[in-house]
Batch of 2 targets.
Target 1
Amino acid sequence: MQTNFTTEQLADPDVAASEKILRACVHCGFCTATCPTYVLLGDELDSPRGRIYLIKQMLEEGKPATRDVTTHLDRCLSCLACMTTCPSGVHYQHLIDHARAHVEETYRRPWHDRTLRALLAFILPHPKRFRVALLGAALARPFRFVLPPGRLRAMLDMARDVPGPDATDRDGVFPALGRRRARVALLAGCAQRVLAPSINAATIRLLTRHGVEVVVTGGCCGALPHHLGKVDPSHELAASLIGQWVAELDGEGLDAIVVNASGCGTQVKDYGWMFRDDPALAKDAARVSLLARDITEFVTTLDLPAPSQGSGLTVAYHSACSMQHGQKITREPKALLQAAGFTVREPLDAHLCCGSAGTYNLLQPAIASQLKARKAATLAATGADLMATGNVGCMTQLADAVGMPVVHTVELLDWATGGPRPEALGSR
Amino acid sequence: MTEFSNRLRPRDEADLAELVRTATGPLEPIGGGTKRMMGAPVEATPLDLAAFNGIIAYEPAELTMSVGAATPLGVVERELEARQQMFAFEPMDPRVLLGSPGEPTVGGTVAAALAGPRRVKAGGARDHLLGLKAVNGRGEAFKAGGRVVKNVTGYDVPKLFAGSWGTLGVMSELTLKVLPAPETERTLILDADDASGAISLLARALGSSHEVTGAAVVDGRAAIRLEGFGPSVAWRVGALLRELGSPDAATLEPAASRSFWRDVRDVRSLAEAPIVWRVSTVPSLAAAFVARVALSAQLRVLYDWGGGLVWLGLDAAYEDLVRGALAEGHAMLFKAPAEIRARVPVFQPAPSGLADLERRVKASFDPDNRLNPGRMGR
Amino acid sequence: MIAMPKPDPQILARRQAIAAQLRTLLPASSVIAETERMRAYESDGLTAYRQVPLVVALPETTQQVADVLRWARREGIKIVPRGAGTSLSGGALPVADAIVLGLGKFKAVLDIDYANRTVTVQPGVTNLAISNAVDAAGFYYAPDPSSQIACTIGGNVAENSGGVHCLKYGLTTNNVLGLEFVTPEGEIVRIGGKHLDSPGYDLLGLLTGSEGLLGIVTEVTVRILQKPETARALLLGFASAEQGGDCVAAIIAAGIIPGGMEMMDRPAIHAAEAFVQAGYPLDVEALLIVELDGCAAEVDHLIGRVEAIAALHGVVVSRVSTTEAERLRFWAGRKAAFPAVGRISPDYYCMDGTIPRAALPRVLAAMRDMSAKYGLGVANVFHAGDGNLHPLILYDANVPGELDRAEAFGADILKLCVDVGGVLTGEHGVGVEKRDLMEYQFDAVDLEQQHRLKCAFDVDLRFNPGKVFPTLHRCAEEGRVHVHRGETRFPDLPRF
């Protein structure tokens, strides 16, 4: 695509990078078809091609973002289905990230929007704050009917009985059982450890049982503020993680950095790009990104033993967008589940987002709830006994909608290899 | 062919254009004259196209054939057979049903859009007409379409001419798509409880992957044709019989199959009926439609196109009964004495919005209504 | 350089009032009138041309379409229909004083009828979504343009789209049974249905491929087919395009109509191989992919025959797919040929002429000379069975003058196609791109007759103005035209 940037504009490395991305786009429109918001809204402005146009215009003109542009960019889920579809290799992820940062810098949002975003960026990356907030929300929940349907109600809807912290919910080293085959870092995460501490617990059991020493480190990967366009807080969180991991790497060493929330995995794998122009961190960030593995990628290398007996259960596997589009992991989770004795089914339109998308379900509840209903219906249509996925956001989004228990893939793998039956399955 | 003293005989395209341009009254384009007793009767000066006879270009490897409009269909088909090719829409010979004299021509066949049983698989005349030269009602010679098999340049005017009964323009040259003729063929004959059951069998066959090229109900039994290469046909016959739950049903060998489908194509079984309707409808509605007509009239019936084409043989027109019983589709009075064709709309009238568009389309070619006026009731 | 009709300044001046009126007919979110937002609609798949429209309207129901069109007729406002905006000929290019009427919200599958093998959908449903909707029952919709993931069935009808399988299975026009459309007067008209043939003129055939000049399609009924039991492909390399072409002719002469038969020339082979590593031989001048589909008995039988024919025509590389994965790998390079070329060149210009296949060596040789003359590379992919050629001219839009050279090169290629007995476009449509070449293929009388057809539907010439036909003159009363000579040409519009 033809672009119009001045030499001065191109001196900014971010603009130069975006210009390169824009030039790769041939405007073929293939991306529109797999974009959840275009499928729902039918307006090209709510499609990747339309947003690319809006971004191109905004960056070329070098002017502050307008309300209209912000509206359409905010509706993007960053699900990256467009990148899976794009035949020309347009790196939409880096383009929308740049655009979001530009919006955050140049556009003054209405006070309520600003407050909400600040609040989310303040609370979510920090487990303690999040736990307190959820407890407060749970208290407020009985009064939700007085609220108009919208963001606040969406937030209260998310509040639920908060499980207590799990025994494994601490940083530290969990030694391998038996002979040590590998040593990995596990990203402890933020919202996930509050909402579903069982995931980290299952991950640690699964890994240590198969001879892997697990070093649990760190908090938020920075994805949540990153998607809100808040560059500095996001970089700070990432830098802190990079520091911790590099210390381990240069100390006892690591075979992998394991991430069990695919949204976070996508982010960690992008650290190399985020810090590409940072002389102090570029090299370490790139090392970290290269070592990052989704839990299913890493477990695939372990050759788990076959289960002593199959559960006889049929699993509807929901591939999170950050898994299938962000990290392009499509085969491993299904293969592992099958090998663990489950029958695996996939819903129709498996490429479409469930509407969770980080904080999207809180910021764009109307679109998110339509996507949720659509996804829940296609998952239910599989007739499976339970649903598994590799991202806590999707689990939270779909838990009350699919009409079947919702678990993390790793909980099933843990169960099949000697771990406890996942609590979500109840006594079925 | 009946001789007319006032018959016009253009020598070439320029002459044809001149004759149309200077005509003082309506004209009736005639090729072989086999279909003159079809459509609403026309009072017009015959325009004999005999000069436009002959194969202009035949490129077997390009799958195209260009001919003069009045080239006899038989001549072209013999030429095609020599190269193991065919007009895949399986043009019908109307003489069997109508008892008409003369030789059907390529132009007339296309103008009447008379496709045979293979229509279900390969499409109709419309789907095989690639290009044409014609003279419109103003007496202007023009061309449309092209001489290659794949072309979307400009409006698809040839589609309009297929089935236009000489009312839009006088075709002088046509280019058609040709296809390889099948190496062999077989026909399965399956018993059924009734027409509805037979049509269900046909639907299952047509909904299979076995590339059915003929699907008719004859004498209450379902007939299914499979064509192609020897090993393929042999395998598909067995597979389809198994899938339809009749592994031991009768099959017709190639020669018998060919003659069977020729009779279906030409509707030989209804040849004696004084009135014949050709009804295009939704296959799953066909049996109920026929049952409704049968409540009030003695009839003979032949279902082709998996039930989508119903031929009704009656002893009177019963136009209200036939069109009234038809929930979807359209009924054409294919065969009837002139006085009935003058009274009953031969082609099913269109709703007002559509009829208005059709009138404007006709006027865009023939503003003074010179060509076959009233033949289609449009 | 292409020129578009001169916009009516009075209409341009009324933009906001027009948008306000549209908002009384449509939901507020369905009307876009800010330049910044309309820019996303300024182009389709042919990015060389861009124009911000007057207003963008996105109706949700047929009744809304009819309401808008009746109102637009009263107000004398022009309409540019748009589906997914994937046209490669500029069919959906906006016009400055016209409303873009987008059908992106028409996404419902209305009826699936397995007994009669039909599907009825709204026009914004994508081509691939139709196949997906019936996939579980083993059916599919046969025409498969390369953009099938995104292009809509409404757009397919407007353009009469083809695809790699259309020699055997037909173009859109051979697979559509019924339409509902709204005329420029705002009348809702239905033609065809689940039955075959028409009692009157074949308006279904006329509307299909009319490039949005005659009406807005609001519902489409297509026929569906059961998927072939199996498919296998051969990869055949030749030392010359002539041998490849002869081999194709011999395959057809043997009575074999393959499901797909695609040829690539050396530059296309190299670009595709570099992109997807399909395992293509790099030392051949022409690569043929022949796909045979049907029952296993047929496919196995024909694979042997095609191999034998290829051997007689000097094939230097011959491979047969033995697994589904291998078949897909053979195709991967061909399917990725366009984007692959997009990666070796910042921009490419895709042409779409059809030629009698026998003329292929002559056309390729002439194209090599033109490539040298214009200083631009060209890669060819070719639907070999039906003679539909897709030369991809490589250029860089950021280099001044290259687009002009690419266009002149393209025009020369298309004229050559006509010279050898072919046509300007086999499946992409005339659009704005090939409009000014129409006079090369058709004479004044031919074009006048087509123009009169336009007048029969759109007497004010308000639908998709500036597309397909190179001259602009009014329709006379009662659909008759009296201007034959000295018609006004479109004034030049600066290209962006």
Note: Residues 172-300 of chain A form a domain with the Rossmann fold fold (CATH 3.40.50).
Target 2
Amino acid sequence: MKFPTYDISKYTVRQLVALPIALLIVSFLFLGFNTLTTGMPVDPGIDFAGGVAVTIPPTADSQAVVEGYFSGYPLKSVGEGVNGGYYVVFEYMPDDEFLKLSEVINEHYPDAKVDQIGETFGKTLQAQALWALLFSFIGMAIVVFIVFRNFVPSIAVVLSAFSDIVITAALMDVVGITLTLGTTAALLMLIGYSVDSDILLTTRVLKRKGKFSEKMQGAFRTGFTMTSTTISAVALMFIVSWIGQIDVIRDISAVLLLGLFVDLMNTWMLNAGILTGYAGGDKR
Amino acid sequence: MSDDTDSGLINTLKDWRVALMIILVVFSLVSIYVIPPGISNGMTGNLQLGLDLEGGSWIQLSFQSEVIRFETDEDPEVFAARIGDALDAEVFLFEEDRIEIRAPFTREELELVFEENGGSLVTYEKGVSKDTADQIKLILENKVNNLGTKDARINTITGLNGVTQYIRLELAGVDITTAQEIVGAQGKFEIRIQTIGNESEHVLYGDSIKSVSTPTQSPPGSDVWGVGFTLSESGADAFQNAANTYGATSNPDAHEIMMLLDDETVYSASLNPQLAAELKTTPVRELRATTGAGEEGLEDAKKLEIHLRAGALPVDVEIAGSGTVSATLGEHFKVMSVIAGILALMAVAFTVYYWYREPAIVIPMIGTTVVEVIILLGIAVYIQQLDLASIAGLIAVLGTGIDQLVVITDEVIFEGRVPSQNLYLKRFNRALGIIMVAACTTIIAMLPLAVMDLANLRGFAIITILGVLIGVIITRPAYGKIIMAILSKKPGDH
């Protein structure tokens, strides 16, 4: 087996946690700056901001032609899919205008998928999504503290999960994935994935007997197998939904994919680093 | 040697989780394809498919009304009536201290009016009471049925405080324009008067009806039900005129008053003597149609109320959100979802094989995952429609499932060998401990989404939670037993 070897005892605690902590701080500042300037940490999609999203199945029309049809409406963005389809987003518009737009869409692209969310409804969804995120996170933290009944390891797990979400959210904004109901669900799902590998690491290192570095090495093998397998499944989900123009699944899988890579770093540098500092290396 | 293998296999099958797993797979396949026969629906069998896979439209409506909890020293009925007058809006007292105001007002506006009338506003929420929501649902269902739509779902979305904020219509195979028409369309309501024999004459149309009350008993407490309604001034004149011209005031029994909705008679009765006498001299605006006594009278009154409104909703609605997917695109999404699922599974198989290089591990692992998906779908037939979001949930849960199978495998197999029975059980339980904790956190993380009604994300959360539960309770422990049985008879180990 060509397993990547990762000998954690080669590094000091400071070396291990430096990169994840730095990224966490940068991401946190980035999201904070966004919130101050735009009111939202990540650019919101129509679910939260209100507006209309149209998925146009493969067509021979060029982007200019598509834009031409919709020029009289508050067009926000036009994205071209790999299969020759388009994903068109409009800002919020009143009902009458939307009815007219519906006719235009129906005339040119009768097979399109259209979703419209009103501004107030978007606000309601936004508030609920925020609560969901908060409750999930607190619930997760409580479970972790009950299980480990040990302050430092619990904090390490909770911090890694928090960092997963924050860094992933920042990356989302950088690569241009908007915050929608789907991507919020993906961020919540990351809590689950993140804690999976963290709990494995913590249990192996704290509850097993043996040499610290060997336990860490064993945990890493299992953890890396886990995460790489999940990454392969999610990556294919991303590719198929991207080609197939299934926007909901494409966005969910893109966020999960980013999050899983972020989680690799947070588990094996941040969390492992804190545990090394706590339980001591072999020498101590 | 062969005896040994056989008894090992039988013992494995006897383990309750392995047995339950097999039973559930059979149950799921039967649910999806056999009872009721679902093969004719193709690959998806009896699975309930969401709009984005089936094609159709959805509309989510919000209400232009508020639910207010208030305080007052007076009789609540008297107070509510005065508030209604002050606001010139229809109000509906549905609990001792809660009213529904059927017109849009801000909290500030209402606070002022409540204070002026000697009460105070305690809570303010946008939406309608449960009763009104049920009535709106009924009206919409009637309209949808008239259209002959084969597959419609109408759900009210009610908060924990009992206030319904939204109502969501999902209409399969209907485009968005038709869906909008269904919500907006109103019937033609007419009152006619019997002249001679079967002949009748027009009196007024629905536009002369200013307001309609909810069913009430008259006199109060008599259990005789009816619906009150108010005519406009011109409507009242027309009504008085017709009643006098055709002789309904002098001989009520021979000249019944009929109500028609879309040219179909929905109610017919003669004027009561007092009203007949009154109409001889003055126009009457406040009228009342009595439907009868008891439960049946109440049911009829409810229907009549809907008819009197001519299919108009008791509360003005706004479209909060809507969407449509064509049948062709739905079919495309369906095919793509299946491809995504199969490829994701193959990717998992490939990755796991790459790390373990051991078919005796890889095959049970993939088998367990397939079984998990089948059971999940089988249960979903009964509780959850599958849409794109829940399919994403399905694949995501497949990811955590594999994670946990890896944890079990690595925990029990140490350096490629299966340990002795005792040590095995100890490690197996330790692995179960890890996956239980991980499962708990995933469930907790998804719980808010399952409880809150965030549109279709509920499906994602429910599928994820269900998948995790099936996994930790049944399939993953069963996998542990199976892999133990398989690996312990590997020749290299003897």
Note: Strands of chain A lie at 51-56, 75-80, 86-90, 113-117.
